[in-house]
Amino acid sequence: MASVIKHGKVWRVQIKVGKTRASNTFSTEDAAREWGRALETKLRKRAELKELLDVGASLPNFPGRIVQAMLDSPLSPEQIIAAAIPTSVICGVYFLIRGERIVYVGQSKNVLRRIARHMDDGREFDRFSVSPCNEHELDGLERTYITALYPDENMSLGNVSK
pLDDT, tens digit, for every residue of 64-92? Predict the structure, then answer.
């Protein structure tokens, strides 16, 4: 939890989440509290992601580099949506987006054809995003995102009520 203390003319924020500690000073209490809340939320999400990835890393054939990449730069749903790329990508893991929610994660060697099938089948989404990868990475990367994001419409991993 973040603690905010008046220290002379400045406000000092100290945060400890797990083994991670951070501190900073601000001229106003409001700025100190806002920074503290934002950083604490980020650190807690990172700790939760690490727990998920630790579980995934124990699975056979789980790509270790995916664990490290997500720890180094974990992608939030907002970041995935913001990084949506042109439809010229063919092989990769794709994310179907409805409103501001990722509702489905899938994989394909031909993403455009697969997304067109989803449209023909009447699946409801208004945007998509793609994480390009090599064919041999598809299964592990898809599993990682489904486990981390737990999209409502992914039933293949025994998705049950949250």
Answer: 555 556 566 656 667 777 776 555 557 89
